[in-house]
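Researcher: I'd like a structural prediction for the single chain below. Treat it as a standalone chain; there are no partners to consider.
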Amino acid sequence: MINLLLNGYKGNMGEALSNYIKDSSDFNLLYGIDKDNVELFYEIVDKPDVIIDFSTTHSSFIALNYAVKELVPVVIATTGFSMEEENRILEYSEAIPIFKSSNMSYGINIFSNIISSFAEKLNNMDIEIIEKHHRKKVDAPSRYSSYDC
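Model: Treating it as a single chain, here is the predicted structure.
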């Protein structure tokens, strides 16, 4: 069983993931952290096996600071990081394993693969992809999550 800390617990993705975890025999949710209880990062007793982060850029760095201190791998699914913050995350990745994706959507990942194939065949054309999210997404469109073709 994998013990998880879910950062961004009360967001749309956090709620979806926590509901999945409740029905799973493979995962155990040790901690659900959100803006209402972020101080929990300073009170953790049982070290998680991994942190999954669907929070905000600010909260992601609180999680990363804990993760580096305790050597916990992190999955970052938070969007909206500036280039400076992206560089800081790269520095953190020298100390701990980090998997970062600006979009965890299955459809987007399929689309990215298709676009890569198109880019090879249309190498003399300019291709521009505009990212849109649902109207309730806090940081739509996600900064610095472009697809270069």
